[in-house]
Amino acid sequence: MATRSLLLPAALLSLLGGQLAVAIDLTATDADSIKSAASTIVYDMMSYYTGNNTGDVPGNLPDPYYWWEAGGMFGHMVDYWYCTLSRFATTVKLQCSRALWDAKLI
Amino acid sequence: MTWQAGSGGDFMPSNQTKTEGNDDQGFWALAAMDAAELNFANPNSRDTGTTYPSWLAMGQAVFNEQLTRWDTGTCNGGLRWQIFQWNNGYNYKNCASNGGFFQLASRLARYTGNQTYVHWAEKSWNWFADSILYESDTHKIYDGTSDTNNCSDADHTQWTYNYGLYLGGLAYLYNQVGWITLSAQMLPED
What we know:
Number of helices of chain B: 7
Oligomer: heterodimer
Radius of gyration of chain A: 14 Å
Helix content of chain A: 40-55%
Number of strands of chain A: 0
Distance between the termini of chain A: 20 Å
Number of helices of chain A: 5
Structural class of chain A: mainly alpha
């Protein structure tokens, strides 16, 4: 069920493309490596978000990012949250994160 | 996400609507579907004055609105890129909007089992597959087409998100009637 739930659109390659210019090491068969790489990317992705600052608008990204890109970003944050749920066995989490990684969504 | 869903729970917040496209609204609806499908807790209010729609309700609200925008007046159907006729791009029928609607319908079909969503997923797929936007022998997806010349040619820019929207929508239709036929059209034989 977990992997089928993650049949995600590749809609947001353009969100990340060109914005993350760092190289991230990944060993795709190693759970810890995937978790570490994913958390780095999610942390960096969320660094663009300013909506939780006083006076700012929740849910949007600042210029030059488009409103729809914020929509995609929050969809991915839900997916990432799902992948890290502690009630899942490590093997499920690994499959979950791997699916997102393969789709270049994290 | 709840904030951006706005007072109508349909992702038409007043800060955005002046230039909002069907595709913009669609991406947010798909994020709401992620939350619904993965059982992310529905928004609730700590005060007694506000109730929020569920993630599913948000997805359905967008579907219901976009349904009213299905335009049979030109090009045998499809959604326009822009919602409002005063915006540039109102003449353009594009994959980001139509693919988003297709995937939303597919995901609602899967989640609810309601045949109306299956029907519209198939209808929007058929419109796309029959249009200039999909090249069946090469499986290419082109960005959009204009109703000013009856959708007879396309912008040949290929965006990965357009492929993702349609491929994802097909996957979500797995096990629904017609999935095998639709996927056979989309996926290359090799």
